[in-house]
Each structure stands twice: as C-alpha cells, then as structure tokens.
Amino acid sequence: MYSYSLYQEELVTNHYHPRVNAYYFKQWESHYMDFHTHKEIEIMYVISGKCIVEAVQDTFHMKKGDIILLDAHVPHRLLVEKGSPCRMLNIEFTFVTKKGSFPSIKELTGSTIILDQFLKLKQPYVVVKDTIEIYHALKNLVLELDKNGSEYEPMTHLLFSQVLIKLARMIVDEVEYDQNNSHKQANLYVKIAIDYLHQNYDRDIQIKDVAQAVSLHPGYLHRIFKQQTKSTIMDYLTKLRIQKAKMLLRETDIPVIEISHYIGVNSRQYFSLLFKKYTGMTPNVYRKAVKISIQKFNT
Predict the structure, then answer these.
(1) CATH architecture under which domain 184-298 falls
(2) Please, where in the chain does CATH 2.60.120.10 lie?
(3) What is the second-level CATH architecture of the domain 9-178?
(4) What is the C-alpha separation between 156 and 162, in angstroms, rounded?
(5) Where in the chain is the domain with CATH 1.10.10.60?
C-alpha cells in the first residue's frame, strides 16, 4: 500500500494484514522532541510516570495507563520534563497484503461491528485510559514478536487483532462519552467497576471493595451504576456468577458441589437456591438437561 492511514478505504475493500515495523520499551528521563511525522501508525502507552504528547494543535498530559493512537503522517512530539521520568511502550505498524489464512482487516470488520465503527470514525489521534487489559495484550504481542520466525506469525496476527479490537471498543466508547459529556465520567467509573467484577467474581466481593477499586464513595458508585446498567452492583454480580456457573456446568466435568467455590459463593446450599431462582432448575438438573440436549443433537 502506498498510503498507510488506518482509515483508508482500501483496508476494507481489499485484503491486508497489519505488520509491526518497530516496538520498544523506553524509559524517558528527560526529552524534548521536535514535531515530526512518519508513515507508520503509532500506539504510545504510558507504563509509569507522566509526559506530554502534542499532536497537531492539541496537548495531552499523559500519565500511567494512558494510551494515544496516532494515525500515519500526523505531526506530533513527546515532551518529558527533567526529574519526572516516563516509561513507555511504543508500537509502530503499517499494512501489507494478506498472506496465509488468518482474517484480513476487511474480514475482521465484516464480523466485528465495533472495529468497523472504529475505522469509520477517522480520527487522526485519540487518547484513552486503559483498564489494564490493553497493556496485557500489548505486552503479550511484544513477547511474541520477539520470538521471530514464520511459525509465530499466526499468534502475532491473533494478538494484534486482539489489540485493535480492544482499542476499538475503548475509542468508540470514548466518542460516545464525548457525545454525552454529562455522563462521560460516570460511564467510565461504571466500566471500571464492571471490569473489576468480571475479574474478581470468584472472590467474596462487597460493594465497598468495588468502590475502593474505582476510588469512589460506595453510595455514589451504587447510584451511577444503577443509572447506567438498570441493575444494582450485587444483582449484576449475581447474574454474572450464574452465567459462569452455567458455563462450568455445561462445558466442564467439575463436580456440582465444587462449582460454588469457582464463582465466589461459599455456601453450596445457597448456590443451589440462587441458581434455581435465576434459571428455574437446580445445578444438577441443568447439567443433566444440557447433556440430554447434546445427545439428541448428535443423534
């Protein structure tokens, strides 16, 4: 491709794969960069410390967990004050003609609505706040890239697609927040709270634990959570636990008496009552019903 913009029409009319041209961790102790451009698209992730990124006429004061995505040919520069070091992970990438069987960007947008929405935004640069998941995805990608060799290409394609889709979700959400500024911060807090629940549902969680993770007063978090999700935090957590229990009953051979501990419910009897309340069946009956359904499907 002659132009490497993330938003060019050719990406969704022909078949291309992203290719990482450069990636590096860098501890900036003090740095003053002139405005510059390059043909690669760039992801800059602040691991620790703080810095300033200027893009065109906008100035972003970035700190730990902040990400900026810069399209190709966008003038930008990095500024790090002396005495305030900043550690970053940078990834620069372009696109090349598809090789192999892994889906192209066109094919991914065809099956992933959020990625299609993201590419239609055509924003030259955007800053979002990570909720940990992006950094883990980027770190895994970098570790895989270090291995080199064609046998590792499928995994790098998979990990890079994961990064793009996760970023797309965050950026589309950010744009939606901007369209409704009065709810922007509340939505962000609720998203972080939901992420916390999905990562800790197997533990004994109380509202105060979620509030502490979000750095909000429990009463305020409870109020905005219910406004945004039409559910209380504990109702959301219970439904999440029931979903996980159904998956474990359906997809694994873990004994029913042990599954309660996998979803953070300490009492087996209470788990059985709770499961029946939400599904109309006891865990044992549900597992048997699933097995019968699978047997009928296979015959």
Answers:
(1) Orthogonal Bundle (1.10)
(2) 9-178
(3) Sandwich (2.60)
(4) 10
(5) 184-298
Residues 119 and 171: their CA atoms lie apart, in Å, by 10
Q: Which long-range contacts (CB under 8 A, 24 or more apart) does 204-207 make?
A: 204/264, 204/266, 205/237, 205/264, 207/233, 207/234
Average pLDDT along the chain, 299 residues, taken 10 residues at a time: 76 90 92 91 95 92 94 95 93 91 90 89 89 86 84 85 91 68 69 93 93 88 90 95 95 92 92 94 93 75
